[in-house]
Amino acid sequence: MLRLLGWHTRVGEIGVRLFALNALWLLYTLRGGVVAGVFPATAAVHAVLRRDLMRPDDPHREPLRVEFGAAWRAELGSANVIGYVLTTAWVLLLVEHHVLTSGGAQGLAAGVAALLWFAAALLFVLCASVWMLAVHFDEGPLATLRRAALLALARPLTALGAAVVLAVVLCLYYVVPGLVPVFGVAGPAMLTSAQLWRSGVLPRPAREPRPEPVPAHSHL
């Protein structure tokens, strides 16, 4: 009974934290005028979740809003480059697919359209993992995009697993739209981040060594 109660309490705590993260995501998206705020806010959500996964019981963490704001400012430039590179790629794929299929794709055009679907699937896989990679590794935006592409090629099952998790959550959001204002970006971010973390592709930081015990007579 106590175990069941503890499980329910833990689920409630996670739900409240995700709601708070989603509210902060919306607040800082608006703070950046949407166009300059949405991608840093997305990166900040992943930065907080990364800290949750690394050191869930760290007593020295700052309040959530302070930690989120610091991550948003730190990722402001890099996250916008990553976000708009991916957005441009999506726009180009959609426009090209529309051009090829608007007149009825046949022959070579049909083959190119099929390749575009494959490119869209690969791009979706990149989007599922790129934000956790961006906040976990201290490198530039282009290096992060290259790392996400390498992950998809070198560890396809891991990258595909994150993409499947993201797709399932998005389908759940479509079926139950009331979940969107509650969990929003934070929900899929938590699940994809946990999947990547369990896979072992993200190196864990070295734990700080515990201080050696001092003998009682050492001060004499």
Automatic annotation (TrEMBL):
Domain of life: Bacteria
Segments crossing the lipid bilayer: 25-49, 70-95, 115-137, 149-176
Keywords for the protein's UniProt record, in alphabetical order: Membrane, Transmembrane, Transmembrane helix
Keyword presence, Cytoplasm: no
Cited InterPro entries: DUF624 (IPR006938)
Protein name: DUF624 domain-containing protein
